[in-house]
Amino acid sequence: MGVAELCRKYGMSDCTYYNWKAKYSGLTVSDLRKLRQLKEENGKLKRMDFLSDALADGRKIKVLPIVDDYTHKCHAIEVDTSINGRRVCEVLNRIAMFSGLPEVITIDNGPEFIGKALDAWAYQRGIKLRFIHPGKPVENAYIESFNGKFRDECLNENWFTSLDHARRTIEAWLIDYNNQRPHSSLNYMTPEEFLRQETALNETKNSFL
């Protein structure tokens, strides 16, 4: 596949391709393999955590974001008046249909995460559940940072008149976050742009290896 066709297929510019080539072409085969292995390992980590909020009528809602470590993509934000361990598994199964499963999920010691449902789900799929130490949210720092932005920009800025209103508003914020928000750690690309680039570059790496 030619460079122009590859760039069109994955929605990146010729400049991005040649910048990557210039960056990595001087590395040895061993260096490239190590780099690819590191990126692949980082790409197998996901984090999730609960937030709480309330509707206009006073009913409490629970919110569960699930975020990828490497691409910073938020794969889902589940919203309901109650979310138990079985529901958490259903959300992860839904994500797996489109994005595959991680090797490790970092979580706190909340009752939805330490129960039998998630434990059995992870065991059956060979996924490691990495529990942070109680009272140590810094061990799950990225999801804590994400949750802070999400609360400031979405939960605190909206008065949800119904559960459906909350879901629609949060989904709109999620789409904007993944598609319109550049991240300095992603070379000022959005999570979706970065994911498309990585998909394309993984394909071209094989030509170097």
Structural category is alpha/beta
Query: Which ranges are low-confidence, i.e. pLDDT below 50, for 5 or more consecutive residues?
Result: none
Report the CATH architecture of the largest domain.
2-Layer Sandwich
Residue-averaged pLDDT, rounded? Answer: 83
CATH homology-level superfamily of the largest domain: Ribonuclease H-like superfamily/Ribonuclease H
CATH domain fold name of the largest domain: Nucleotidyltransferase, domain 5
Count of separate DSSP helical elements: 9
Largest sheet geometry: 6 strands, mixed
Distance between the termini: 16 Å
What does this structure look like?
This protein has two domains: 3-42 and 191-208, no CATH class; 45-186, Ribonuclease H-like superfamily/Ribonuclease H (Nucleotidyltransferase, domain 5), CATH 3.30.420. It is globular. It is α/β, with parallel strands linked by helices. A hairpin with a 5-residue loop joins strand 2 (51-54) and strand 3 (60-68). The mean pLDDT is 83. Helix 1 packs antiparallel against helix 9 (191-208) and helix 4 runs parallel beside helix 6 (116-125). The chain has helices at residues 3-10, 14-24, 29-42, 85-99, 111-114, 116-125, 141-155, 163-180, 191-208, and strands at residues 45-48, 51-54, 60-68, 74-80, 104-107, 128-131. Strands 1, 2, 3, 4, 5 and 6 form a six-stranded mixed sheet that branches. It contains nine helices and six strands.
